């Protein structure tokens, strides 16, 4: 009977031992995978500094590219301002020249008429007076039209630079996620002995 009970006990122990051994084997594999995963995480942590330096270089390069675009646009806008300035100055100088010429003609006519009025010879005066009266009347009637008593262009720069959208875009410039975040996971399953 002792042999039977020992044999029965041995048989009854072999099944749980086998199951425990299998579960230990599975758990050991998972622990090994966990250790390897921890090593990979440590290597990843070590590579963060290098990746950060590369990413910083990329950010600097992209911001520098934006600054270059702004500098180019600034140069173009300043060139437009210089062209507008040149046009205004040229237009005003032309108006000064036209007005000066009209004023010189008017002054010449005035001086000539004053000399004619001083003429003591009545016959000479009568010969030129009707033509001068007509000429002075025409000059008087056309003076305000030809003189243009208002500037042809404004000395002010009636333009505005709308940089609000660009400033808003720069202020809202941010990073976006290109890839899904890696979620490290280990396939742990519940062991039947737990």
From TrEMBL:
> What GO cellular-component annotations does this UniProt entry give?
neuron projection
Tell me, which GO biological process terms does this entry list?
axon guidance
- Coiled-coil spans are 67-95
Residue span, COS domain: 117-176
Q: Does the keyword Coiled coil apply?
A: yes
Sorted keywords for this record are: Coiled coil
Cited PANTHER family: E3 UBIQUITIN-PROTEIN LIGASE TRIM36-RELATED, E3 UBIQUITIN-PROTEIN LIGASE TRIM9
Protein name in UniProt:
E3 ubiquitin-protein ligase TRIM9-like isoform X2
Organism whose genome encodes this protein: Biomphalaria pfeifferi
């Amino acid at each position: 009977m002792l042999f039977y009970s020992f044999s029965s006990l041995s048989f009854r122990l072999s099944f749980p031992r086998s199951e425990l051994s299998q579960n230990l084997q599975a758990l050991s594999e998972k622990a090994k995978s966990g250790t390897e995963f921890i090593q990979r995480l440590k290597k990843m942590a070590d590579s963060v500094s290098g990746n950060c330096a590369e990413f910083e270089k990329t950010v600097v390069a992209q911001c520098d590219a934006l600054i270059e675009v702004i500098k180019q646009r600034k140069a173009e806008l300043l060139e437009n301002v210089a062209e507008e300035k040149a046009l205004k100055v040229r237009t005003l100088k032309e108006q000064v020249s036209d007005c000066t010429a009209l004023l010189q003609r008017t002054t010449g006519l005035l001086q000539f008429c004053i000399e004619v009025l001083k003429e003591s010879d009545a016959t000479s005066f009568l010969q030129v007076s009707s033509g001068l009266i007509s000429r002075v009347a025409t000059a008087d009637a056309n003076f305000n039209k030809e003189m243009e008593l208002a500037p042809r262009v404004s000395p002010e720069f009636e333009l505005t630079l709308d940089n609000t959208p660009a400033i808003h875009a720069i202020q809202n410039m941010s990073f976006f996620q290109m890839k899904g975040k890696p979620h490290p996971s280990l396939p742990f399953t519940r062991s039947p002995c737990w």
